[in-house]
Design brief:
Layout: E1 3-6, E2 9-17, E3 21-25, H1 37-43, E4 48-52, H2 69-82, E5 88-93, H3 95-106, E6 111-117, H4 131-142, H5 146-157, H6 160-163, H7 166-178, H8 183-195, E7 209-214, H9 223-231, E8 236-240, H10 247-250, H11 252-265
Parallel strand pairs: 3-4, 3-5, 5-6, 6-7, 7-8
Antiparallel strand pairs: 1-2, 2-4
Helix pairs in contact: 1-11, 2-3, 4-5, 5-7
């Protein structure tokens, strides 16, 4: 995969498709392979998608040390600059949605239209995963059993119905085995998430914003989507009933169409 020099690090990325640029920012522990092939293929009919691995993840540089959401947003802005893109449509999910919020607030000139999926803004009224969900994830990660860790991650990231789809799980498992994130990096990303708070600044956003959230999201409950929509002026909220955190795995066609329509209206 090509590498983009961004400051003192290099980010592994991939560009594909036809149309206006769409920067896609992945969530905690994810690599750009976690975007789900069906979702990416659909988007690439109308966009030049740019997917990448965060620092310390996948094939990107691994400087280690603490990370912050603001730092990851600077990486995203730097990637656009290195690729000689003045601006792009931006889609961020989960932790990537937090990075996208920070990118839009700090570099609004870089963002044509913003889409935030299954994410969180911090502040009073926001809600992270429950203690039970975090306990299950931690036990899986610390067990030393990669199969257990992957199965647990799958089950808390999708709806119970979709979790039973063994073909979908096989794809998720293959990616997880091939491109595993170190536990210490995941823990550092979790710390960055808990410190993230854009709640008081989101009303400053003057960008067209789409928000997508599933009602069965266990990682970042759906009330976060409602909260973000209430804070960003004229934001459009789409709720996926009966869908978990990885809505773009469960309903890739619907998710892609929402991103496509949002970008077209605000081209």
């Amino acid at each position: 995969m090509p590498q983009a020099k961004v400051g003192e690090i290099e980010l592994s990325y991939e560009r594909a498709g036809e149309g206006p640029p769409l920067l896609m920012i992945m969530g905690m522990s994810g690599t750009f392979d976690h975007w789900n092939a069906a979702f990416l293929d659909d988007l690439r009919r109308d966009f030049e998608t740019i997917v990448y691995d965060h620092r310390n993840i996948g094939a990107s540089s691994r400087p280690g040390g603490p990370v912050t959401i603001a730092q990851l947003a600077r990486d995203a802005a730097g990637l656009l600059a290195t690729l000689e893109l003045e601006s792009a449509h931006v889609l961020g999910i989960s932790m990537g949605g937090m990075v996208a919020q920070e990118l839009a607030l700090s570099h609004p000139e870089r963002v044509r239209a913003l889409a935030l999926g299954c994410t969180y803004c911090g502040g009073e009224g926001s809600l992270l995963a429950s203690e039970e969900v975090m306990r299950r994830l931690a036990e899986g990660m610390m067990s030393g059993d990669r199969e257990r860790a992957l199965r647990t991650a799958w089950e808390v990231n999708v709806s119970p119905t979709f979790a039973a789809d063994e073909r979908a799980y096989a794809r998720f498992r293959e990616i997880g085995l091939r491109r595993a994130a170190p536990v210490e990096v995941i823990m550092e990303q979790m710390r960055a998430i808990t410190e993230h708070d854009t709640s008081t600044r989101l009303p400053e956003l003057a960008l067209p914003t789409l928000i997508v959230h599933g009602t069965l999201d266990e990682m970042l409950p759906v009330q976060n989507g409602h909260m973000i929509a209430s804070l960003i002026p004229d934001a459009h909220l789409e709720i996926f009933d009966g869908v978990g955190h990885l809505f773009f795995w469960e309903q890739p066609e619907r998710a892609a169409e929402l991103v496509r329509a949002h970008a077209a209206v605000h081209a």
